[in-house]
């Protein structure tokens, strides 16, 4: 991987954090606080000023001398044995701290995977936890498995940083328990522990509700009731299908994309910087098509998972999987975990550990091409001649494992100049224990096995879209509704007409989608005009209407997830406002984020960004247990008046000479493609 060899070397403003920059940042902070032991929580690149970065990009395109964009990192840290946390901005060019602030009391930095592992280890030696395990009278040889979660805050009180630990039991079957994928989540135990991050001590045991009532807690005289194993590993299934024949996909001539300096991607008229950071994961920067700017920055900015179980302490289960754990800490695109068929390129990225050392995260990003079916087709019915092309897609994929759950997060670019964002949700549902031998009348979850309940929950996501439509400084935001025109004897005498209403978004605000009006948000360049249509060039966001936050507006979940109550928020661009739930959502009470930014009612001009919010409402099914089939959601960002015709007209025709598919004849069922006049259909 290419690296800038010293902090003084001029780095591209979009260069991903480099390992030596982690070292340099840590060293600068240690020198400032030489009398203390520094515990590093976050080391990351400080987002460059957009105006300065744009000057760099324009000079780069014109091959002019490149201006200097300050290379800075932000670092969050604590001192050993102290609860206070600090955030500094470090200038790597000067080797100095240019900003320093103490985080307010009760504001906590994210936890790393190392933090979570440490907490899970220490609870297993704690006297309070061991007493609970003894109470359950578990069978001899039982293996208790702890699982650390962020602690859900429910009041404005200033609290120390805490963790909520849930406990599970490994399989009682020796064969299943010995398997590396044995599913302990099928055996939830009836208590939880709360751990103080500073003292690393268990400060409280929470008994868990075992019935539908809010106070139906487990009692001292309730021993563990064995639960049925629910294994998902292939080797542990009673039988496996035998009738699947292999599908082999290959690229014998290699891939169609190129990578410059391990970060700049060129593919099918697309060019962009591929970045990766600890919180958002994959970020696309300076996205251009055929040399024309389209977007300055694209990222998945936040996600939240509120649970519907109202019984304490389950009411606190609301994960912020990016802000609380970080995409970089959980990315695990291992070869067997990534659906890369054909060409694969893996990327390695760095995060920091508690000592300020770069920590390697292998295989964080998988990039490959796929055949996505027909791109466009038409058959001349007069002579039977078919013209058809294939749609090729470049897939940029990251898989995040958040304890029990997986999110497959995919940026896709296609040959018709569209960008897609796809989320695939899979993994194991978070489950809770229930008393066996009792019929539970639930409306906030279902029983998936005797003694095991899967609560209803939501997965709500926020895309941050920073446009640069055919230029970096001329993008405005509007939304368009398709509306029925009234009967008018002179203009619509038969009542068939409908038209498009264009509504400019001039100030920071929010809107909701309306399927009855086919509402679409667009970014357009208000300084240019399509010579055919007379309309400004733009890109429209096509996203299905989904249900948003169901928690009551007075609830902690609603306050904390400030983006989750409207389909779109619009704010003025700021490199200091990247995360819609605020910089530090861990144990926050809310009140800092995009909802507050939008209330400023500032004029957006040509500097607006959109936050596109959508999600899954997951009411569990037995078919989701013990592992959930992928739930798929896709957003399309399509050109609109950006071109004068179909930009994929120059795609080569799909022919059998290239595709090598074979016509099935007679009883031969080994191949399955038809052919027509030498053109694949």
From TrEMBL:
Note describing how the cofactor binds: Contains 1 topaquinone per subunit.
Keywords: Copper, Metal-binding, Oxidoreductase, TPQ
Cofactor needs: Cu cation
Primary enzyme class: oxidoreductase
Pfam family, any one: Cu_amine_oxid
Domain Copper amine oxidase catalytic: 247-649
Molecular function terms from GO: copper ion binding; primary methylamine oxidase activity; quinone binding
2',4',5'-topaquinone found at: 405
Top-level taxon of the source organism: Eukaryota
BP GO annotations: amine metabolic process
Post-translational modification: Topaquinone (TPQ) is generated by copper-dependent autoxidation of a specific tyrosyl residue.
Keyword Metal-binding in annotation: yes
Protein name per its UniProtKB record: Amine oxidase
InterPro entries per record: Cu_Am_ox_TPQ-bd (IPR049948), Cu_amine_oxidase (IPR000269), Cu_amine_oxidase_C (IPR015798), Cu_amine_oxidase_C_sf (IPR036460), Cu_amine_oxidase_N-reg (IPR016182)
Assigned protein family: Belongs to the copper/topaquinone oxidase family.
Coiled-coil ranges (or none): none
Active site (UniProt): 321 (proton acceptor), 405 (schiff-base intermediate with substrate)
């Amino acid at each position: 991987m290419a690296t800038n060899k010293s902090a003084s070397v001029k780095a591209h403003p979009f260069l991903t954090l480099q390992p030596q920059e982690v070292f340099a940042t840590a060293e600068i902070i240690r020198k400032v606080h030489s009398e203390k032991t520094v515990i590093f929580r976050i080391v990351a690149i400080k987002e460059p000023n957009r105006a300065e970065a744009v000057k760099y990009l324009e000079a780069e395109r014109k091959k002019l001398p490149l201006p200097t964009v300050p290379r800075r990192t932000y670092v969050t840290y604590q001192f050993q044995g102290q609860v206070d946390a600090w955030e500094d901005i470090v200038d790597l060019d000067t080797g100095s701290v240019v900003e320093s602030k103490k985080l307010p009391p009760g504001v906590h930095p994210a936890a790393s995977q190392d933090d979570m592992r440490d907490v899970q280890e220490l609870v297993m030696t704690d006297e309070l936890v061991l007493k609970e395990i003894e109470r359950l009278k578990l069978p001899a040889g039982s293996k208790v498995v702890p699982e650390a979660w962020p602690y859900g805050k429910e009041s404005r009180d200033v609290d120390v940083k805490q963790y909520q630990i849930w406990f599970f039991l490994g399989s009682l079957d020796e064969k299943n328990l010995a398997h590396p994928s044995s599913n302990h989540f099928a055996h939830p135990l009836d208590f939880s522990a709360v751990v103080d991050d500073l003292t690393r001590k268990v400060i409280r045991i929470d008994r868990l509700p075992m019935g539908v009532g809010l106070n139906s807690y487990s009692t001292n005289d309730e021993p563990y009731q064995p639960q049925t194993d629910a294994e998902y590993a292939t080797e542990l299934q009673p039988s496996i299908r035998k009738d699947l024949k292999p599908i082999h996909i290959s690229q014998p001539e290699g891939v169609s994309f190129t990578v410059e300096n391990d970060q700049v991607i060129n593919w099918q008229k697309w060019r962009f910087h591929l970045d990766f950071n600890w919180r958002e994961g994959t970020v696309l920067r300076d996205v251009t098509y055929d040399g024309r700017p389209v977007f300055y920055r694209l990222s998945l900015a936040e996600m939240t998972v509120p649970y519907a179980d109202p019984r304490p302490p389950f009411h606190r289960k609301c994960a912020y999987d990016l802000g609380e754990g970080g995409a970089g800490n959980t990315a695990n695109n291992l070869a067997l975990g990534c659906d890369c068929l054909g060409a694969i390129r893996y990327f390695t990225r760095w995060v920091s550990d508690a000592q300020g050392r770069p920590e390697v995260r292998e295989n964080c990003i998988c990039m490959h091409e796929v055949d996505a079916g027909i791109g466009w087709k038409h058959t001349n019915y007069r002579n039977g001649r078919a013209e058809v092309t294939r749609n090729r897609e470049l897939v940029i994929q990251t898989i995040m494992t958040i304890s029990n759950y997986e999110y497959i997060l995919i940026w896709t670019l296609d040959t018709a100049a569209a960008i897609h964002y796809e989320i695939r949700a899979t993994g194991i549902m978070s489950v809770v224990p229930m008393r066996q031998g009792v019929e539970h009348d639930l409306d906030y979850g279902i029983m998936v096995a005797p003694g095991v309940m899967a609560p209803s929950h939501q997965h709500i996501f926020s895309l941050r879209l920073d446009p640069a439509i055919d230029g970096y400084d001329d993008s405005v935001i509007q939304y368009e509704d398709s509306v029925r025109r009234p009967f008018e004897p002179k203009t619509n005498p038969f009542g068939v007409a409908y038209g498009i209403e264009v509504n400019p978004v001039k100030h920071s605000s929010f809107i909701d989608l309306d399927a009855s009006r086919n509402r679409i948000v667009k970014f357009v360049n208000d300084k240019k005009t399509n010579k055919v249509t007379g309309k400004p060039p733009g890109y429209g966001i096509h996203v299905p209407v989904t249900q948003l936050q169901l928690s009551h507006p007075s609830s902690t979940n609603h306050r904390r997830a400030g983006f989750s109550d409207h389909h779109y928020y619009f704010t003025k661009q700021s490199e200091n406002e990247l995360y819609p739930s605020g910089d530090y959502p861990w144990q926050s009470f809310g009140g800092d984020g995009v909802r507050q930014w939008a209330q400023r009612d500032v004029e957006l001009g040509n500097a607006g960004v959109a936050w596109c919010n959508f999600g899954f409402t997951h009411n569990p099914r037995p078919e989701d247990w013990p592992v959930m089939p992928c739930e798929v959601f896709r957003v399309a960002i399509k050109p609109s008046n950006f071109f004068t015709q179909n930009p994929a007209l120059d795609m080569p025709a799909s022919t059998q000479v290239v595709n090598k598919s074979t016509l099935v004849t007679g009883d031969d069922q080994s191949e399955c493609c038809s052919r027509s006049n030498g053109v694949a259909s």
